[in-house]
Each structure stands twice: as C-alpha cells, then as structure tokens.
Amino acid sequence: APVTARWPVMSTVAELSLPVGATNLPRLQPIVAGCFDAVENRLSFFRETSDIARINRQAGTGIPVAVAAGTADVLAQALSVARESGGAFDPTVAPLMRLWGFRGGVTNLARPAHEALGGTLALVDWRQVTLVVTAAPPHAAVHLARPGMELDLGGIAKGYAVDQAYDALLREGCSVFLVNLAGNMRGRGAPAAGRRGWRIGIRDPLQVQAGAWLGTLTLEDGEALATSGNYERFVVVEGERVPHIIDPRDGQPARGLISVTVLAGSALEADALSTALFVLGVDQRRTVLRAHPGCGAVYLTDTRPPRLRVTPELHGRFRPAPGWKTAVEW
Question: The whole model's pTM is what?
C-alpha cells in the first residue's frame, strides 16, 4: 500500500500519499503542510489578518484593499466560474450562508423570512466585486461595492491549496504522489508498477460503512478530483436537514442531487466546478462544461431510486461499483 501522512488543517484533514516503499515522506509532508498553511493565512474567511477578512471589512467604503498576487489569481478564477455558471457559483455567498446558520451564523428554528432573505440576496452578487490588477505596486486590489457584502472563497480555496502543494512537490523533484485535502485530490504518476495512475473510490453517501463506493476514477498525470455533496455539513431547520450548498441565485438550499464528482485538469477547477454543477443540476451543466474542455462529472440524483448520471467525457473512465451498474445513465 502507498505510504501516507495525515494531519489536521483548515478544519478538515489533509493527506500526502507516496508510492510503496517511499522514504521521503518525512521531508515532503512539511512542504505540503506549509503550502496549506500559507493559503489558509491568505484566504481564510475567519482569520482577521487574511486578505479576505481585510476585503470584507472595507466593503462599501470605496477603499480598494491591496492583496497578494495569489489571492487575486484565485478571485479572478472564482469570478470566471461565477460568470460561466450564471451565478450558481458565487464567491459573495457568505451573507446567505450566515443567514441559514453556516459560517458562524445562528441556526434558526424556522426558515428565513421573505424579507430577511430578500435583504440578504441584495448582498450576494459577484458582479459587485471589483478586482484591479496593475503592473505597478500593489499589483492587485479588491473592492466590494455594498456595505455588508462578504467574500468567501471556501468553494475554491482548498482546490487552490492542493494545486500549490502539487507544484511545490514537482519543484522538489517528486514524480509520484497524491495530495488530498478534504476530498480535493490531485495526483501524479502511479503508486505501483503496472498502474496507469491513482485509482480513487467515489464514496457512496447512501451507505454508512467505510469503503462503500459509487465507483472509481483513475487520476492520470496532473488530473484532479473533487466532490460536492449534501450529506456531511448541514443544519436542521423546522425538523428538516438543510445542506450547506445554498443556491446564490434564490437563497434556497440546492435541490435535485446528493453529490457531484468532477474530474478536471487542476484541483481549483474541480473544486469550483463541483459546487457550480451541484447548484445547476444535471440538465443545466452544458454551458459550464463547454468552458472547461476535458472536464467531466458523475452525478448522484436524489430521485427514488437514485441514479448515476455520467457526462460523456468520463465514458470509459468511470467504473461503477457492482451495486450501481444498473443505475448508471451514460
């Protein structure tokens, strides 16, 4: 089996896996951990000194906030996915998350009132984010147009952190590895002779036992995988589980799916697209995927019985588990 290091970061668990017999794990793990810590320090919604927190404090003031080049890059890509998805992915969704009891908000016993929802939706609009990049210092600055707006890059930051770690490992001369941050994965090489890459099991959220899979996908050199689902993080409102994926367009919990797994060329891309595609649903995916050639998705619907919908890009790549073979719609 591959050798793996696990450690806590970003309120979740990180893993670095190397091939059988590797002896350089103690040297490489701190490098990956350092990448994750640097991203958290810069992009955390909760750390007062982060670029994101500093931007949020100046919302509506007209004062642009100078940010690191990496922050500008992640925000630019987040705004691009927001545009492609018609706002199904929106980096200004934080006020809505708080209203529903996430992101430090107080969970209500009842659903948000119409007036409260309307007022909060007025603060959620990716088009009200101004990002200016210049050749002269400070090189990048960000401004939020309205008081009360808040950036939250939680739907893309973990993928970006995995990409940063991936690049750092390449610079170290590492040719076979898998980086995993809360299910955001990117791999290179193969962990054993005769394999094409890292074979990843996609969790079956309808089964409680460990090792229950919907199927598998193999990550070939540089490919990444991310899953968005409604089954791990939720609040209970009026006796109903409300998952943490909120549709930024109407302020309601996203419906229709249990999970979406995306295969992409980078972890950032996979991370953002999994959220966007979860909100959009199976039938509205085409515009987004058209803008990301080579990306594909596996959807688990919340129908009865549930179905697995696999986009054409993953035909021949996704291998359903035996119990799911008859549920797949290719």
Answer: 0.95
